[in-house]
Amino acid sequence: MKPLIQSLKDRILIADGAMGTLLYSYGVDRCFEELNLSHPKEVLKVHRDYIEAGADIIQTNTYGANYEKLSRYGLEDSVKEINTAAARLAKKAAGDHTYVAGTIGGIRAIKQNIPLEEIKRSFREQLYCLLLEGVDGILLETYYDFEELTTVLKIAKRETDLPVIAQVSLHETGVLQNGMNVKDALHQLEMLGADVVGINCRMGPYHMVSSLEEVPIPKGAFLSVYPNASLPNYEEGRFYYSAEPEYFGDISNELREQGARIIGGCCGTTPEHIRAVSKKLKSRVPVTEKIVKTKKSVQLSSQPLKEKLLHHKVKEKKTVIVELDPPKHLDTDLFFKGAQALKEEGIDALTLADNPLASPRVSNDAIGTMIKERYDLTPLVHITCRDRNLIGLQSHLMGLHTLGIHNILAITGDPAKIGDFPGAASVYDLSSLELIELIKQNNEGISFSGKSLRQKTQFSVGAAFNPNFRHLDASVKRLERKITAGADYFISQPVFGVEELFQVYEATKHLDTPIFIGIMPLLSSRNAEFLHHEVPGIKVPEETRKRMKDAGTDPVHTRAVGMEIAKELLDTALRLFNGIYLITPFVRYDMSIELLQHMKGKAGTEKEVPYGQRII
Fold first, then answer.
1. Residues 39-71: tens digit of each pLDDT
2. Between helices 498-508 and 555-576, what is the axis angle to 10°?
3. What CA–CA distance (Å, rounded) separates 4 from 98?
4. Calpha distance 309→403 (Å, rounded)
């Protein structure tokens, strides 16, 4: 049998189809890679069925046989055993007449925020297992994250002379998740040394043809394509694919006409699909020339902003934002009275939480739109990862941009189980870091899928900062990761001690990214104890709690002591930070107004103290 690359020079090779789809259809819904150890006969049968159907290349059952995925099943210590068994099963089925590609799948399949160093370690572990078993090539498949694919491709080319097939996956026709044109991506992979470049998964053959129409036939590599059978159907709790093998076979000739030399199948395909492809293509010669279609580029537009974004404003002057929670009911009169009063005091923005403590409130985007239109007051809308899946988050961002809301805070959100609806599910498709990255991608005019939004959003992206961690340096390291992700400024949890304010300043003074430091007046000793002991992420120093306890129980007196503490904190915060974040307790906006008026009386005096991260 010729080496794989030699065979590709003068013929089209038929690859196999899905492994997991077949096993799933047999009623197996578990870690498919573990079946190499527990059910080797079933895995061997799938390989042989594809070979009997006409496959020239089969792939090892190792797509997700990496540390990251296997750890979800408690199998992280079985990486070597699973990969080794998979390669041996594939080689046993292949004999001397079929090529075996050692498969390594992408880990950042849904833009997971997994560090590259971890990806490199995991990739090497899997790669060495497959190479030791004498596979005929390496197949890198289902890579949505282009950085991940280029990283592992470089490793593979350093570690082996075997041919490497590098395949991207697309959410949208002709474009990667990062907005790169598939033509440019495949060319880059070719330049990095990939012997075969191509596309697999997510799309059916029709959209694969459309994507390849823009791709010229590579001069130094070959093209591959592994479409899904179709888009998946969902019925009675199970996914299935309805595309008929005959249709799949017919359209495979169109893939050949686009220059593909390796044609196989991904999700939903079966030996019958591959049999249909084999019948159509076994006697056909490869295409060496084609007419490349050039699709019209979309021009991105951006609308001029009527207001200065918060992260610009806070770098220039003292800037004050005030939080006023949307109501938990439909009586909004008090809220709007508070919003109007705070506007009259000259605040820079009203910050609106997104169902804090997982309790439903009037939606903050609706309230934000109303205060913007009624009072010409800038809304700062929080967005949590808890309540919306990826589709909902992308749609929500598009909606906020359309409403003219440009200042947002990206946060993880409190888990649903702590709120009023404990039976509700927390979504968390994205982490707050990934949400920041998504928003910044939208600012480039690119949706999560890579599709053009036709306009650039203009979001000023805030991120949360919790200075109340036991180890402040760990919290600051997380800030630095959020800055790398694209955070423009930070809003902190409330700080309740002057000493703690200085600690925060010292820990963050090396950062150029502005911080809005949180100040929240206490109402009573009971309020202080509740916040300290029961609210996640908040710590009230012992000295502050003692002062509130010594204030007694008279509400007028305890309020006065709480305000006295808040003013002391505010005086110090004004010396150290340009951004002030006043948190209004229980819609008591009169307390925030009193603090604002206190600030006006202190205006200018903060320059007398030799501290200041942003202005001294």
1. 999 999 999 999 999 999 999 999 999 999 999
2. 30
3. 10
4. 15
